[in-house]
Amino acid sequence: DAFLLVGQSNMAGRGELDNKNDNKSQKTIINGHEILSFDCNNLWVQAKDPLHSDKPDKCGIGPGLSFAKLTAELGIIETNRKIGLIPCAIGGTSIKQWLPSSKSASASLSNIDINKDDGIFEQTIQKTILALNTKFESQSKSKLLRKTKNGSILSYSTDTDDDGKLNDSNNFDIELKGILWHQGESDCDTIHNANEYLSNATLLFQYFRKYLNND
Questions:
Q1: Alpha helices, DSSP H only, in 80-146?
Q2: Per-chain mean pLDDT for the chain
Q3: Is the pLDDT of residue 24 over 70?
Q4: For residue 149, is pLDDT > 80?
């Protein structure tokens, strides 16, 4: 069961790390639930802070791993299912930067070309689809994707439909259970941006549901 982590620095994590207890190979298993993270190399690995790599010199402890641990402790996930975190937050970003390319709060919920557009939203959808179609603790499935020189994904495997949306079936039994959104500080600079936040957020969440088939 997977959870997408999105937003700005508060989600990416800027808390001070305790390097004394840094053991990247140690498994985190709570109530039978192993906690994993989809890393920058497109591999499921043991979840350890920092989960994100948006700004390597600043990344630290964020809410993602604590959320996963609490979820495991509460027993709200089916017995022995793994919990996977998909870190996609980027520090310093505004909500308008998260909207699909060339979209705004006034735009209709139109189709976008996930395979061609390379904005933050498009890259997040690409990574999420890849994570959901990569077996936990397996090798990366990136060899099935065509990439540009800068690493952006241009085409998907057969696990997505013609619009780039995730198919209902999932060979690896990994289901997106939720999206954690933590962002807003970059939109507090002006009254205008603050007043537009609700409409921008509503549109963004509609796009997330549209392209991740998560009603």
A1: 95-98, 120-132
A2: 80
A3: no
A4: no
**How many CB atoms within 10 Å of residue 108?**
6
Q: DSSP for 17-71?
A: P-GGG--TT---EETTEEEEEE-TTS-EEE--S----SSTTT--B-HHHHHHHHH
Using a 10 angstrom Cβ sphere, with 0-12 exposed, 13-18 middle and 19 or more buried, the burial of residue 99 is buried
d(CA 104, CA 28): 40
Q: How far apart are CA 13 and CA 165, in angstroms?
A: 29
- CB-based contact 117:100 (threshold 8 Å): yes
Look at the block and give the residue holding tokens 């013609």: 162
Q: Which of 160, 134, 157 is nearest to 146 (CA)?
A: 157
Buried b (16+ CB within 10 A) or exposed e, 38-67: bbeebbbebbbbbbbebeeeebbbbbbbeb
Query: Which two tokens mark 112?
Result: 């976008």
pLDDT digit string, tens, across residues 84-127: 999 999 999 999 999 987 554 444 566 666 666 678 998 999 99
* Cα 82 to Cα 35: distance, rounded to the nearest angstrom: 6
Element (H, E) at 45: strand 44-46
Q: How many residues does the chain have?
A: 215
- Evaluate whether 122 touches 148 at the Cβ level (below 8 Å): no
The DSSP bridge pattern shows strands 83-87 and 44-46 to be unpaired
What three-state secondary structure class fits 147?
A: strand
